[in-house]
Amino acid sequence: MLVATGCATASSAPSATAALVRVPADAPTISQAVTAVREGGLVLVSPGVYRESVLIRTPRITLRGTDRNEVVIDGEVRRANGVVVTAPGVTVQNLTVRDHTLNGVLVTGMSDEAGGVARGSTGYTRLDTAKFPPLNGFHISHVTASNNALYGIYAFNSRSGVIEHSYASGSADSGIYVGQCKPCDIVVRGNVAERNAVGYEGTNASGGMYVLGNRFVGNRVGLTSNSDYLEALVPQEDATIVGNLVGYNAEPASPAQADGGFGLGIGIAGGTRNHVAHNRVVGNPAAGLVLSSSEDLPPIDNTISGNLLEDNGFDFVYAASERARGRGNCLRENTLTTIRPAPSECFEGAGAPMPRMSAPRGIAFRTVARPPLQPNMTEPPKPRTGPVDLTGYGVPPLNLFADRAGVRP
C-alpha cells in the first residue's frame, strides 16, 4: 500500500500510450505508472509515502517527484530495493528513497525477466558481461537516498550516465557506488555523501569515470577507487577525481563495512592511470590519501597533483605491497606535510604498511540520523553532451554544500 496526501482519488490506470502519467491521479502506484507510460514519457509523482519497490523496464522514461522531500519510496525495512532501472536512457529525479534492505536506486545491465540480478540486488553470482551487456544511458538527479542497508545509489554494469546533485546517507557499504564498467563514461558530480561506511566507491570503474566537486565528509571512509576480482573488468583504470571535499571521515554514528575501514579520506587500491587533482582532503585521522595494492594488482602510473591535504594522520601514504610492487606513481604540486614512507616525487616498488586505526562498532543502518531537507530541482537538468569540462573544479572550500549536510565539523 501507499499513503498519499493532498491528492485526488486515483482513476483507472491509463494505457501504455500515455506520454504523462500522474501518481496517484492517473495511476494509484508508481509501479503501475511506470508500466503504463510510453517509451520516452514522464511519470510525475505527487507528495506521499509510497510503500513499494519500483522496477523500470521501459526505455527513456523519466520518473520525477514534484517535491524531493515529500515524495518518498519507503522500503519499511522489508523490501530490497526502492527503484530498479533495467532499461536504457531512464531518468530518476527529485524524490527520496529510504529504508530498503539493499539499495535505494539500482541501475544495472545485469537483468533478466525478474529484474536486476547484480551483486547487491539478489546476491552475488559470477557475472558474465557478454551475456549481460551494460545498460547504456541513465541520469540520477536530486535524489535523496537514506537508511538503505547496502548502497544508496548503485550503478552496476552500466555506462554513459550521470549521478548528480543527490544525497546519500546511512549505507552500510557505499552511499554512491559505480562498479564494473569499461569504458564507464559516467560523471558523479555535486553530490553529498555522509554517515555511510564509504561515501563513494568505484570498483573496476574505468575509462571516462569522473568524480567531480562532491562533498564526502563524515563517513567512515570518504572515497575509494579500487580493483576487485569479485567483479569483471579488472583492473580499475583511468578515473578522474577532481575538486572534491573529502574530510573528517571517522564518523562513529554510521554503519560499518565488513572490512572495518575507518578514518581514511581517499583510497586507491590496485588502480592504474588515475588522476587525483585539486581535492581538499582534511581531518582524516588515519590518512588523507593512500595508494595501495589490491591482491596481486599494483598501483601503476597514478598522478596526484594540486591537492590540498592537511590535518590528516598522514597526508599521503604509499602502501604498495611486496607481492604487487607499484611503479610510476607521482606527486606534483600538492600542499601536504606528512608522507609515508620518505618523501619522494615518484614512488616505485613496495611501500609502507597500510595505516590502520581502531574502528568503532558502527550502528544499524536504520538508526542513522535522517537527512536534512534537501533542495528541490528547479528545472530539469539537460542531458550531458560532449566532453567533460574540468576547468571549473579548483580546490573546494571547507563549506562546500554545507547547507545540505547534517555533518558539519
UniProtKB/TrEMBL annotation:
SMART domains with a match to the protein in the record: PbH1 (SM00710)
Region (Disordered): 371-393
InterPro entries: Beta_helix, PbH1, Pectin_lyas_fold, Pectin_lyase_fold/virulence
Superkingdom assignment: Bacteria
Residues annotated as domain Right handed beta helix: 138-307
Family annotation (Pfam families): Beta_helix
Residue ranges, compositional bias (Pro residues): 372-384
Gene3D superfamilies: Single-stranded right-handed beta-helix, Pectin lyase-like
Protein name as annotated: Nitrous oxidase accessory protein NosD, contains tandem CASH domains
Organism: Allokutzneria albata
